[in-house]
Amino acid sequence: MKLITPKKTTLALALSLISSISFGAESLNLSTTLEQAIQNDPQWAATRHGYQANKENIHFASAGLKPSAKITGNIARNASDTDPSSRSPSSSPSDDNYNSSSIGASISQPLFRLDRWHSYQEGKANDKQFDAAFNAEQQAFYLRVVKAYLDVLRAEENQQFRDAEKSAIKRQLEQTEQRFNVGLIANTDVQEAQAAFDISSVQHIIAEQDIALTLQNLETLTGSAMNSVAPLKANAPISPPQPTDVKQWTESALTTNPELIAAGHAKDAALAVYKSKRSAHLPTVDLIGTYSDSHTTNNSSPGSNESSGISISLEIPLYTGGTTSAKRRQAKQLQYQAEDDYNLKKREVIRNTSNLYRVVNTDVSRVMAQRQSIRSAQAALEATEAGYDAGTRTIVDVLSAQQALYGAKRDYANARYDYIFDLLQLKQTAGTLDIEDITEINSWLAMT
Description:
The protein is α+β, with helices and mostly antiparallel strands. It has one domain (8-40, 114-281, 329-442): CATH 1.20.1600.10. 65% of the residues lie in helices and 12% in strands. It is built from 11 helices and 4 strands. It has helices spanning 8-19, 30-40, 42-54, 57-63, 114-181, 187-222, 246-256, 258-278, 323-390, 395-430, 435-442; strands at 68-78, 98-112, 284-297, 303-315. It has a 4-stranded antiparallel β-sheet with strand order 1-2-3-4, with no helix packed on it. A hairpin with a 5-residue loop joins β3 (284-297) and β4. α7 (246-256) packs antiparallel against α9 (323-390). Mean pLDDT is 88; it is low at 6-26.
């Protein structure tokens, strides 16, 4: 899984991988949709910026082990108002006013700060957790783009079926009216056909609205308006997930699932926090160096003083009102909580991987079964129409057969889209979903 970090070089490399495929200027396919979403989706941009901010925390964690230095300076004008009778005969009023200046520097290097060392280990674990969490967010982002794209395809295909269904029912209504006008059928058949046509007209309007809504959702991701997207090829491959052994998928998920990896690093961080709080009982040792230079300027006794020193500072904590012990006990319980969260996530990953593997295989069977159901529904419609012409079937039978045929076509289309989405969900759970998977799905589209 290649991580699209916010760095321009890596992001540009990812975008070039998508752009390396040649597209028509008027065609919006899955790869171009993902490219535009990477550049324009505000939610993804917020995720990247949050990741960048979190990556700075490692520097905070290491700062406690590094030396700290500072320089101080001071310039002052000192004046005093002395009783003239108490001033010596040889002094002048200006002797009570003088200038002073000083400059100093100090540096401190921790020598033994075990609590800070464990805090640094916590920071490293958190840094790895941020990487894993960002990986999980990236794969979820890919899946969000795919779902928005497939929603448009579902809506467009449903609208096409509704349009064809409406046209077929309209022709049936016209034929029924003609037969009624010549006295071959009763008015009931005309009313049945008219009711079916009215219902199909409403469903057609709803289907058109669904297209507008799904296109608007996709526009929110990409930041650009569009009218349609490239459809799925009729011969798009529908095959069981590879490898065909569910144990291999589970083993992969336990190794590479980013959410599980993040939970593991969270567990390591919680352990480091506990060790840090436990170390707060121990002495601390610092190496301290100082330097100062001060000057005083007046008429009677100008002078200067320069000093420097190096020392080792030892501090032994004795009692803080029970705070240190309470923080240690609290950190231990939080460590147990992090371990429980990790074990729960591990079980969820095993369950979700196994379930999604079965779902994808079921989707494959569904697609094959729905394809056969279209043939069966088509044959049933032809037989029903022949029976209607012969007077053995009613118009209701014909309309029902037509609805069954278009319902089978919609179910077949949805089964194919479910297969694609569930397959990518399986790869996401296994922690392997990548841009290459999006590119592969894109090759299944009929691009102009």
